[in-house]
Write a structure and sequence with these properties.
- It is built from four helices and no strands.
- It is mainly α.
- It has one domain.
- Helix 1 packs antiparallel against helix 2.
- It is elongated.
- 81% of the residues lie in helices and 0% in strands.
- This is Transporter.
- It comes from Enterovibrio norvegicus.
- InterPro entries: BTP_bacteria, PACE.
- Keywords: Membrane, Transmembrane, Transmembrane helix.
Amino acid sequence: MRTAADRIRHAIAFELIGLILIIGIMTQFGFDAAHTGVLGIAFSLLATGWNYIYNVWFDKAMQKWAGTTEKKQKHRILHALLFELGLLWVTIPVIAWWLNLSLWNAFLMDIGLVLFYLVYAYVYNLAYDKLFPVKTPQAHA
């Protein structure tokens, strides 16, 4: 299993890279970078806390049900989907309020963000696991 320091590095890097990408995308759609940046930072802080808690829970669940924390593609897909669904219920009304959008338009925007983050989370976690593999304890003879 990953150490607390490794999980913190994972969560912070995930959010910083994601925030930079999203602000860039939002400005391409005509939104003010500073205004969306504030929303992005708030969501980033929320998601960072959720990311840490969720990954601990997910690894414990995998260890219990699969006997390992090594993720296959199906585990990575489930991991990304459940993470994003956990955030949706909070983010839609906040997006509507902050960006002065209808709930429907906020929902559509959030779905766009979810689709982005589903792909981003999959690619990021795959790359992170390659760059920083979990050290498996060796069995003592």
